[in-house]
Amino acid sequence: MSKACAYCNVEGAMTKEHIWSKALIKRWESKLKTYNPKTEKFYTGEPVIKDVCANCNNVRLSQLDQYWSEIYDAQLKNQVQRGDGVVFTYSYDLLLRSLLKISFNSCRATGDDRRAIAAHQKVRDYILGEGKKPKGFSIRLQIVTPAKVINGEKIGIDEFSHGAMRCAKIAFTGTQTNKFQIRLIAIKSFWFYLIIPINRHTKEEKSRFVEEFKKWEIQPGVAIQPAYDKVVIPVEKTTYMHPILLGSLLLAKP
Q: What residue segments make up the domains of the chain, in order of their start?
């Protein structure tokens, strides 16, 4: 029995789509660790999902894989150090489409959040580069630098940093969580918060949701604006890898 492609909905033979870009995985400096929410354990391997046709996988989505590889090489590869600010340059549509692709792949792989899957399905044409920019979606970027860890057995200070790729649902507890969801796409120091509308909403409700998130225990990052091609993140807007962030990263629902 043939399946329908998750992106174009055409039935036929399906291929293995990597949750993360294969080109990005090849660039990774260490063995990729993947979290399995069913066993609540990490394993060494490349996470894939087999529900994308060859044309979407190898042709229509290839531009996003290329873009993600380019910004990784130019901006995301090295950890941002304490005391450093960041100037992040981007193409808004390519960035949003790339983040949505990773997020869509991730929530389909786990299959336990139908509202999130449905929200991504509504913007499949946009992800493929064939639709208008969707309303209600937005991006925030948080820069996370290494933390100082005092070593109790010897004199000195160690560095603790987040050196992994992670895509997960953030368990935000605001008043508008029935209408919006936040998904994290983290690559080393760069933590992208993708705000996704999962139900109908007004502009006022979206503003209220964002304002509540900005006051939450996790630093909300800086808004990525569609009208620009770069964002300046000064030192005072960065944060370090502290226990709250680490706990949210490890306990977030994929």
A: 3-251
